Amino acid sequence: MDVEYLIFEIVMLLMLAKILEIPFRKYSLHPMAGHVITGIVLGPYFLGLVKPSGEMLGIAYFGLLLLMFYTGLTTDYRELKRRSKTVLLMGGMGVLVTFTLIYLAMCLLGYEGLPGIFIAASLSNTATETMAAIVAKKGDTISRSLLVGASFVDDVMAVFIIGILAGLAVENSLSITTLVILTSKALFFLSLIFFISSLLVNKYPKIYKTISQDYFWFATFSILLSLSLAVAAKLFGLSELIGAYLAGILISRGREFHDPMLRTRIAITEFISDFTVVLDALFIPLFFAYIGLSYSPGAVSFSLYLVLLSLAILGKFVGTAPIAYISLKDKRRSIAVGLAMSGRGALETALLKLGLDYGIISPMLFNTAITVSLTTTVIAPILYSIVYKK
């Protein structure tokens, strides 16, 4: 492909993506849906102006790595500590119930094995960015803490699942032995990074202070760390995405130790702010527009869509609303929290694209599950607002 035409395609995708995201931002919805629609409109299914080329895939996948790094950067463990037991229980039960319901339905419909597991895992997560947008304009302190905290737990579990499923795809095997080995690898990798981050915060905070003295070198070090851990995870037999995510965790925990000059905290805050601009302006729109290029509305199974959408909402509600009631002591707000937890977002969509590229799921399953994810992204804030309102 000519470089000039590639740049022309990028310009078209970015211009339309930014135009279509305006109504979504206006109503505090994730603009991801607008970006995906951009790819659908300009892609092979409609206008045919942009095709999912290898060059565009490379740009999109690099954007995905940066998105995972950003997810780790914005993970705040202080939210988890405030209501750790309730938050962990909410996040865990929401994933468990939703995964179980969807996987059983997939088995009954003839999609047992790795495809069924992958779809169930992809639709079991709750998007932190969607929860943050929901509680930004409506919600009490406790509800906000529960929603954001539980979605953080979901993100950590989703990254863990990504590492295992990507390994299964590479091995092309679903044997118990392979599953145990990959699970052990993922647990070891996660535990190692969490141990190192705790060691840095509690024993060697001077390392954070040293690298944050110069903002330019801090930003450079952070980006190189994300790419290095991505490569390390790949060499370890896991997905690159889990390495990029854990690099964000390592950097973000620099805010936890006591720093009278606040130098490290200021550097991290400025870096996240600048990094957000780059992601929002370039890489996130291009990644989700690329997903739109691969999306075909005609390949969606409407009956499967209705089943998955119903279970995606029901599983989260059943798994989280009763636990939320323990802290809230309010039936209406507990129901609102349970409905809000059905919101999906970037991480789930990225996981589905990964499954398609690895050949784990078929184009029909991909298109149907993407439609479910986009639908919940839009309707979760609406359901929450309706129920929460007195």
From TrEMBL:
Pfam families: Na_H_Exchanger
The keyword Glycoprotein belongs to this UniProt entry's keyword annotation: no
Localization of this protein: Membrane
InterPro entries per UniProt: Cation/H_exchanger_TM, Na+/solute_symporter_sf
GO BP of this protein: proton transmembrane transport; sodium ion transport
Cation/H+ exchanger transmembrane domain boundaries: 12-387
A cellular component annotation (GO) from this entry: membrane
Main location: membrane
Single Gene Ontology MF annotation: antiporter activity
Transmembrane segments: 6-24, 31-50, 56-75, 87-111, 117-135, 147-170, 176-202, 214-232, 275-296, 302-328, 364-387
Protein name: Sodium/hydrogen exchanger
Native source organism of the sequence: Staphylothermus marinus (strain ATCC 43588 / DSM 3639 / JCM 9404 / F1)
Upper classification of the organism: Archaea, Thermoproteota, Thermoprotei, Desulfurococcales, Desulfurococcaceae
